[in-house]
Write a structure and sequence with these properties.
There is one protein chain. By secondary structure, this protein is an alpha+beta fold. It has helices at residues 6-54, 153-205, 220-267, 271-297, 308-320, 345-362, 391-397, 411-422; strands spanning 56-58, 64-66, 81-87, 90-93, 114-120, 126-135, 144-152, 329-332, 366-374, 377-384, 426-431, 436-443. Strand 5 and strand 6 form a beta hairpin. Helix 1 packs antiparallel against helix 2 (153-205), helix 4 (271-297) runs parallel beside helix 8 and helix 6 (345-362) runs antiparallel to helix 8 (411-422).
Amino acid sequence: MTRLSLRWRLVVAGAAAIVVALGIAAAGLAALFAGHVERRAIAELEVHLDQVLAGLTRDQSGRLLVAPPADPRFQRPYGGLYWQIDLAGDTLRSRSLWDHRLALPPDEVADGAVHVHRIGGPGDAPLLALERMVSLPAPLGGGRVRAAVALDAVELDAARNAFLADLAPYLGLLAAALIAAGWVQVGIGLRPMRRIGSRVAAIRSGRAHRIGEDWPAEVRPLATELDGLLAAREADIMRARARAGDLAHGLKTPLQALMGEAGRLSQAGDAAHAESIEAIARAMQRHVDRELARTRVAAGASASRCDPAEVCGRVIEVARRTATGERLTWHLDDVGRIPMVAIDAADLAEALGALVENAARHASSRVELAVRHADEEVSVAVRDDGPGIEPDLLEKVTARGMRLDEAGTGLGLAIAADIAEAAGGRLVLANREKGLEASLLLPVAAS
């Protein structure tokens, strides 16, 4: 049950409640119907009892006789209707009783009072019996008689069962209608939950910045807390970016001082120590640049957008003017119409700059950039005609959880991968027939 969605939990619980409620209602209706049928049966028995008492006579010998009621069931053995009169020392019975005698309970009945009993009848069939104690008038010899009529209760039970059988299909239709109505009600009630999921997705993709206040009273506290969480996250990110900037500025001066010391050592003839210091300072600078890049895009690059072809053109123009780029041929494929991508132009330029720098360092004569659009992604590929990466090393650097700088490929690819992942994309490396292709796969910006 814990893994069921809220919709199914509510629907299942509602359906169970409906079934239980209709079951109780069916039991109550059956009891009411049985009571009604029994009251009608008692009324019928009272009529028969009056007929039996009205038919009491005495013959010439003074023997008490009964003119049987008109209902033929009194004449048919075990016909379902029975009468019996007990008087001092004698018992008169209907033909339907045959050789059976009604076993009335030994209770005291006042004159004219009526008692109703459930007793056993012929063949142990249950009977509904009605009895009355009557004082006979003088023409009938006086005295008191105990008169009783009985009806086969199986007929009453059959009537109740028939009523339930007729009622069951309607109860089933009612249960189905109520469960369907409950399903619709749950769907309407949970619609704000679907809306809040869509709003969170819009925030994630950059189409919105807050959950908002336009929610029902039950959902509004959740929306308010989420907005507060988003605001706190943005504040934390801004503080982190400010600290990263302060760190970068704080390290810039010491790094420049180290480079100056290396220059002076080189002029003094200690070239070996100068080169060692310069290498350490450059490595520190690259690490600082990487952390700055990761911090800058941490706020969610998907909220930004840029034209990838335009950024590629600017990166090529800059790369052509570098000492390494002057010796190479640069080419940008005719990209045609490409949608905007969900990343800041400066972040994309930095990622492409790292890939282009890596390609220029290993290329023999040519570097190509290509932009392609497929489904909801845009691929920005940088290709060189260098030696590529060893296949076993390529598998390592593309493995999940592997840091690119740990694989011996430098920090350029690592910085590009960090920027792409922060924007919701990824970096894909592949050896071509000649050279390496590094592709940034970036999500399309929301329109």
